[in-house]
Amino acid sequence: MHQPNKIVFYLLFILLIPFGAFGQGNEIDSLKNELKGHSPMDTIRAGLLIELANKLTYFDPNEAIPLMEEAISISKKTDWTLGEALSHRQMGNLHYVLGDNIKALDQYQKALALSHKTTDRQLQSSLLSNIGNIHADLKEYDLALENYHSYLTTSQEMGNRADEIKALSNIAIIYNDTERFEEGVSYLEKALSLSKLEENNLFIAAITNNLALAYKKLNENEKALFLYLEAAELAEQINNKYIEASALNSIGKIYLLFNDYELAETNANKALTLSKEIDAVEWQSDSWEVLSEVYEHNKKIPEALDAFKKHVQLRDSVVNEEKKSELTRKEMQFKMERQQAVAQEEIKRQQLVKNGYLIGAILLLVFSIMGYFLYKRRRDALEKRKLAEFNAKVAETELKALRSQMNPHFIFNSLNSISDFISKNDIEQADDYLVKFSKLTRSILENSEKKWITLEEDIELMKLYMQIEGLRFDNKLKYHVSVDNSLEPDNVLVPPLILQPFIENSIWHGIAPKKGGGNIDIRIAKDGTMLKYIVEDDGVGRSGQNREEKKTKDSYGIKITSSRIDIINHLKNTKGSIELMDKAEGFRVEIKLPLELQF
């Protein structure tokens, strides 16, 4: 069994695996009985072990691992090279399903080395595909392309059109992921032509759907719409609800661009129905997003709010999983690099030792050189480890900063406030709140991948955040933002929403408990080569807070911002800082960052 191609065909294989599960169970029981009746440690037993492990891959991969260890042992003892290669490949498949890409890659590479000692080119071809999948998962796109191109060449030489289609599609998706859309379109069109020659409707539907996405990225929306419609129709014919739901959501989004809200609603509703049938959470989120825009355009504010709530809830569950996957990917990549570094060090060390025996006359010099290289390797290894730890800290800090900005309490409090306005028949206020809230959340998500934005954009986000909180406090909150004349807000670059935790603390722990109104004063000025933020409020101050409030104010928000500033200091070699000061009435925060300019 090959490991299925993940890049474009993961839609297909995920749907195909569960079908015939009952038959698989019977086959597994039958193979287990055959193994019990065949005890000799020969190639027949090894073949049965490989076949049984294959059947167990998606049912119980942990049970299959000892079977492969036995198959590898038998194949070595009987000098069955092909069996040993097949066993290592199957072991790689098991680790891949279990999510351990490092062990999977190691097994695939062992299998590939053994396959060159056989005449089985199909085996070599499948292993190139598997290795390409691992590198694609780790976002090592150059290595992924290298293996996929080798896979393509081998498939073409063997005349295996199905594998050729998969190779072309995988190469195309790598190009699309790296925003080389013209090249991606070229390979997808080749794959589509071959799929039509094969009359493989499943491949045609999946590739057409991906081709439509590429054209949409190229802003060729008319062509993208035509292809999405074609993909949806074909997916419906072959009863592939996963591809059909994806295509219908995309069709709905394009109709929104064309301001055809009726057709957008029709396609979104159909996609939602299909998504629920197959429990595709991501597609359900997309459907609700389209419907919320349709309802908002049609002035159906309660329906728009309800749809938007459902979109946010489903999207957040998907985003959290993606963030976890990204952190896992980085951790696995670090482990792989560390293993490779250790392996290279061992090879070099052995070579140096061997050379030492050969040139005994200059033994002292050889030992000196070895000592220097060992020291250098250790230093380099430590540097790599520090870099990996720093990158992990960056990823963790970015995720925490995004979570603090997209605080669930803030989101649902805002949505409840909108709902409250609606229940009071204050549609105008509800609409104003919803527009501001939508704009803020969209801006936060768009800026979550950016390291820097202009000061002008950041000020607008802070103002929008304070306006929303002001509406919730019945305009009890007043604020003022001033920028020194020596600064050009549209030319100064700052980390997005660096002040948000402190503004939030001022509102909730300073002004909210205070009787009457409250003010927040934000001043931004140049301080030598640094940019200085000052945030002051006239709230109750820390003396008027209970112990838990103090702990929250003095730890969580500061910890996130301190981590962000530490990262900036490390990258820019600067001395950014945070300083907290109690006032007679209220609280003051001073933040210093390196002054960054666009031009």
Describe the structure.
With 599 residues, the chain is of the alpha+beta class. 73% of the residues lie in helices and 8% in strands. The model is unreliable at 1-22, 321-331 and 399-406 (pLDDT under 50).
H-E string: HHHHHHHHHHHHHHHHHHHEHEEHEEHEEE
Rounded average pLDDT: 79
Task: Determine Rg (CA atoms, Å).
Answer: 30 Å
How far is the N terminus from the C terminus? 56 Å
What are the low-pLDDT stretches, counting only 5+ consecutive residues below 50? Answer: 1-22, 321-331, 399-406
Protein name: Tetratricopeptide repeat protein
InterPro entries: Bact_2-comp_sensor_kinase, HATPase_C_sf, Sig_transdc_His_kin_internal, TPR-like_helical_dom_sf, TPR_rpt
Transmembrane segments: 356-375
TPR repeats: 85-118, 165-198, 245-278
Give a short summary of the structure.
By secondary structure, the chain is α+β, with helices and mostly antiparallel strands.
Write the layout of secondary structure elements.
Blueprint: H1 10-16, H2 21-36, H3 43-56, H4 61-77, H5 81-97, H6 101-115, H7 121-137, H8 141-158, H9 161-177, H10 181-198, H11 201-217, H12 221-237, H13 241-257, H14 261-278, H15 281-297, H16 301-358, H17 363-405, H18 408-423, H19 427-447, E1 453-454, H20 455-472, E2 477-483, E3 492-494, H21 500-511, E4 518-527, E5 530-537, H22 547-572, E6 577-582, E7 587-594, E8 596-597
Parallel strand pairs: 2-4
Antiparallel strand pairs: 1-3, 3-8, 4-5, 5-7, 6-7
Helix pairs in contact: 2-3, 3-4, 3-5, 4-5, 5-6, 6-7, 7-8, 8-9, 9-10, 9-11, 10-11, 11-12, 11-13, 12-13, 13-14, 13-15, 14-15, 15-16, 16-17, 16-18, 17-22, 18-19, 19-20, 21-22
